[in-house]
């Protein structure tokens, strides 16, 4: 970034800096520009007048500088030119004579780069013959310097203006030489690692942009295009490893440092935390390309390193690894949230069930494993999200509750069919083909149950009659209708009540889209009935699943 762009970048990320302090820090050997582009006085004058008059007055004396200007233009216009590497990084070009490394040169006060001159008409002008460039990661060093300076703030009194003001003991700060920079910046020793990462990010993002540049929105890369992209990124990674003479262990060490900085140094600096989190992500990508390690492999290797405290999972209460905290696995997070609610419903379900129908922890674990194995884990999404939306006052959340109830009633058919197709052959064959309706798909699994015949009768007498006008009435009269069948066994009553409610809801949503009356108040009971029905079906069906 050019100096002005770097200052804007720092200010936007809540790191204070001005041109004067950048110059001061360079003078005191604390923070150097990455590159200083210095051009001859004559070129600086011509450059300014060319810009002002829009007339080309250069000659062949400055051909390499003109070429550099052109290549920088190409680099900055990726929409038009496929330039991956920055021209400053091309070591074999003639323009390198104008690019200085400030760390290898004596400090010159910046105003000495100013050029004052008088043009042909006698008008006075001024311009500069140097531009300073910084890398984005130097914001971290700058923040460290600022923190160091602030620790030596003192309060002083202005006699002339009659007020107190806070200032830094400038003389003390300025005495620190580069040899002692590490006392101020613990990050100093990893500058080369960051230069490495910066080049990777540049190449990674530009290769991806170029690969998709000619694609329409929503288009995917072909297999050949994807292979080319992956190979380009991998080749760059290998080249950088060779240039910087790094090992994989060096990258893991750097990743640990980044994680520690995220939790310790930037825990109260959210914008810098976001930046360092981005760097952690890119560092992980680089390791993946170079080693073939998966995200999970890297997470295990890092473990809990860098954490300022122990983070636990919501339901299982297992300790989270550092990368799990930084980049939560959405699937696992949904599962953790859903299981809190499932656990509560299971406890309520077991209290109302006899031992034959109760669920153990192992039963629930097997159920979750079964739905995950068979791509039915959207069940967990419904559970997790419905619990959040129920307590939200947003319009969208209220509408979503209807969708969750409908989707869970459909899920009952999905789980029954999936259990059936995984059952012993005698049952499995009855699920081959297109079958629908809860009663129809329940029959192969439940027809031997003592409550089945009563369910069939009530399903015909009540459930099939559900519509938008009578659904609440039918659900409310179910206990009385069950009693009319002289069902005295509480377990059979419980099963019939829940599965009939689920059947009514499923039949209703198959033909209606209007919301249920008094939906907000009846929702918890309807929701719980569907979950109870799913548990009942699992209790009955799990023993019929064939062992592979």
Give your account of this protein's structure.
By secondary structure, this protein is mainly α. Helices cover 59% and strands 6% of the residues. The protein contains 23 helices and 7 strands. It has helices at 3-12, 19-27, 41-53, 63-76, 138-150, 170-174, 181-184, 191-212, 223-244, 248-265, 270-291, 295-302, 322-326, 330-351, 361-373, 378-390, 395-421, 425-428, 438-446, 452-461, 471-484, 490-511, 519-541, and strands at residues 35-38, 99-100, 114-118, 124-128, 130-133, 153-158, 163-168. Strands 2-1-5 form a 3-stranded antiparallel sheet, with no helix packed on it. Strand 3 and strand 4 (124-128) form a beta hairpin. The longest helix has 27 residues, at 395-421. 25% of the residues are buried.
State the helical fraction. Answer: 55-70%
Q: What is the rounded Rg?
A: 35 Å
* Biggest sheet features: 3 strands, antiparallel
Strands of the widest sheet, in order across it, are 2-1-5
Task: Write a concise keyword list for the protein shown above.
elongated; two-stranded antiparallel sheet; 59% helix; 548 residues; mainly alpha; 3-stranded antiparallel beta sheet
């Amino acid at each position: 970034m050019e100096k002005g762009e770097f200052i804007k970048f720092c200010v936007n990320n809540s790191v204070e800096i001005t041109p004067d302090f950048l110059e001061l820090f360079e003078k005191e050997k604390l923070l150097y520009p990455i590159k200083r582009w210095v051009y001859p006085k004559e070129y600086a004058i011509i450059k300014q007048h060319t810009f002002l008059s829009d007339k080309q007055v250069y000659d062949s004396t400055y051909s390499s500088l003109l070429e550099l200007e052109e290549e920088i233009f190409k680099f900055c216009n990726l929409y038009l030119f496929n330039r991956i590497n920055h021209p400053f990084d091309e070591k074999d070009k003639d323009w390198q004579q104008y690019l200085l490394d400030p760390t290898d040169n004596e400090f010159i006060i910046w105003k000495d780069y100013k050029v004052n001159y008088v043009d042909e008409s006698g008008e006075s002008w001024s311009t500069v013959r140097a531009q300073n460039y910084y890398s984005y990661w130097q914001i971290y060093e700058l923040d460290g310097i600022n923190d160091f300076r602030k620790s030596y703030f003192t309060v002083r009194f202005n006699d002339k203006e009659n007020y107190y003001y806070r200032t830094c003991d400038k003389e003390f700060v300025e005495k620190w030489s580069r040899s002692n920079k590490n006392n101020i910046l613990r990050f100093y020793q990893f500058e080369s690692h960051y230069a490495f990462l910066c080049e990777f990010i540049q190449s990674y993002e530009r290769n991806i942009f170029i690969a998709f540049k000619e694609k329409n929105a929503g288009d995917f890369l072909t297999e050949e295009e994807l292979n080319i992209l992956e190979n380009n990124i991998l080749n760059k990674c290998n080249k950088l490893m060779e240039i910087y003479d790094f090992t994989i262990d060096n990258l893991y060490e750097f990743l640990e440092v980044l994680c520690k900085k995220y939790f310790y140094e930037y825990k109260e600096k959210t914008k810098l935390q976001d930046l360092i989190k981005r760097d952690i992500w890119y560092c992980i990508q680089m390791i993946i390309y170079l080693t073939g390690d998966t995200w999970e492999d890297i997470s295990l290797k890092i473990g809990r390193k860098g954490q300022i405290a122990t983070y636990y999972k919501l339901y299982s209460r297992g300790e989270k690894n550092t990368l799990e905290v930084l980049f939560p696995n959405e699937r696992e997070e949904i599962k953790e949230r859903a299981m809190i609610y499932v656990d509560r419903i299971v406890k309520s379900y077991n209290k109302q069930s006899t031992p034959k129908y109760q669920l153990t922890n192992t039963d629930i674990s097997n159920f979750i494993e079964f739905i995950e194995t068979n791509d039915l884990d959207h069940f967990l999404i419904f559970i997790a999200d419905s619990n959040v939306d129920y307590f939200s006052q947003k319009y969208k959340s209220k509408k979503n509750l209807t969708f969750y109830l409908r989707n869970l009633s459909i899920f009952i058919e999905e789980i029954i069919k999936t259990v059936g197709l995984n059952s012993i052959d005698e049952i499995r064959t009855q699920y081959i083909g297109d079958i629908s309706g809860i009663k129809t798909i329940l029959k192969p699994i439940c027809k031997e149950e003592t409550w089945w015949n009563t369910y069939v009768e009530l399903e015909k007498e009540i459930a099939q009659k559900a519509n938008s006008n009578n659904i609440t009435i039918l659900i409310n009269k179910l206990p009385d209708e069950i009693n009319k069948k002289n069902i005295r066994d509480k377990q059979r009553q419980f099963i019939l009540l829940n599965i009939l409610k689920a059947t009514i809801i499923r039949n209703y949503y198959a033909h209606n889209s209007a919301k249920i009356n008094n939906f907000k108040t009846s929702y918890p009971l309807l929701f719980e009935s569907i979950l109870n029905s799913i548990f009942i079906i699992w209790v009955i069906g799990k023993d019929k699943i064939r062992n592979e």
